[in-house]
Amino acid sequence: MSIGKIIQLIVLLLAAKEMGVREFGAFSIALAIAQFSTFIFIPGGQQGVTKIVTRFFSSKRYQELSNVIIFYILIFLLVTLLVIFSNQVTNKFNFEEIKYISNLLVLLIPITIWTIIREGISRGFSYVVLSQAPHELVSPILILFILIFSNGFLLSAYDFALIWFLSYMLIEIVLVTTLVFLNFKSIKRITLNFNIRDWLDDLIIIQISNLTRVCILRTDIIATGLILGVSEAGLYSIAQRLAQPITLIARTIFAATGYLVTKFFEQKNFTMLYQNLLITTIFALITGILYVLVVFIAGETFLELVDEAYLDAFPILLVLSVALFFDCLSSPSNQFLLICGFPKMLISVNIIGIILYLLIIFYPIANNLLINIALAVLIPLSLISIFCMLFSHISIRKLIKKSNVQ
Questions:
Q1: Which end of the chain, C or N, has fewer beta carbons within 10 A?
Q2: DSSP per position, 17-70
Q3: Which residues contact 222 (CB under 8 A, 6 or more apart)?
Q4: Using CB atoms within 10 A of its CB, is residue 339 exposed (0-12), middle (13-18) or buried (19+)?
Q5: Is residue 239 scored above 90 in pLDDT?
Q6: pLDDT (tens digit, 9 = 90+) per residue, 348-396?
Q7: CA 156, 162, 163, 164 torsion: positive or negative?
Q8: What is the pTM of this model?
């Protein structure tokens, strides 16, 4: 679904051009909060939902499966009510920017959480393409067509948030109706016997691991908005969006080699496991360097194509591209550590990275606070990445030596 990510990038760049720095900043803050909220409110995240649904569906334990689905639907409803209530409280106070972003969150948080839950469930039913295509491809294309033919109608962040919400909601209604039709016989057999203790504990480690992993990369826009305001958040966000295509490399590695890592580890074929790690790391290194070079050479041109008002974001774009390069470079090592029994170590390292991230934000090391926030992302990510790569390579070498002795 790399094409879908590219289309999403085009949608956001076009919206940034139409709305201007301030309105795009407001939307970016709200979207960042909505995306980060999924790691807080959804136990286990999309990965955890898929894991539990797959376990019960493949073993035909339909009673437990129905409990899982009902539990996540209740989570969605409770979060939606909480967001609406928070919005009503926020609107009582005379803080215009906070009220404005709160109004955006009423649209963005529920649809984002629902999309993640639905994707996790449909993946668990083995509808892989059906689970990804709607929100990664179909909905962005629909939004893109609306933007292209709006003839400058898009003037505010709220307009764009409303288009975003309605587009995703329409596709989700069609998709859920299709899934219900395909599984109607199974749905009729559902009986309620609500018990979550048997499987909720399995999601705790996944939840903590996911949350610590995304704290840095999902909160920098929010931090920019809180510290510097919505206009600066717009500049920072456009730089982040242009740096993000490098993460497609990591997604490609995870999608293409995840099953191989699991297979080699379970077969105790540590030599092949090490070769896979080396090859994927070299692939990430070469492609990552190429993208950073493209940003260095043509980054200002990309920003100018969006709008001249975004040219000040070029230094931030450079710093974030290098930060995401390190994150991409360590993706094969992170995959090994997650699959091969080192999640607690990853959590510990990520927590240290979060502490360093917060220290740099609150005790700036650069005079330009926008660049300082970008450095607060770069420094922890680079150190975490280097440590994970060294640790994974040393660990596999030990496993190879141990297997040769035996």
A1: C
A2: HHH-HHHHHHHHHHHHHHHHHHHHHSTTHHHHHHHHHHHHHHTT-HHHHHHHHH
A3: 29, 32, 33, 36
A4: middle
A5: yes
A6: 888 999 999 999 999 999 999 999 999 999 999 999 999 989 998 888 8
A7: positive
A8: 0.86
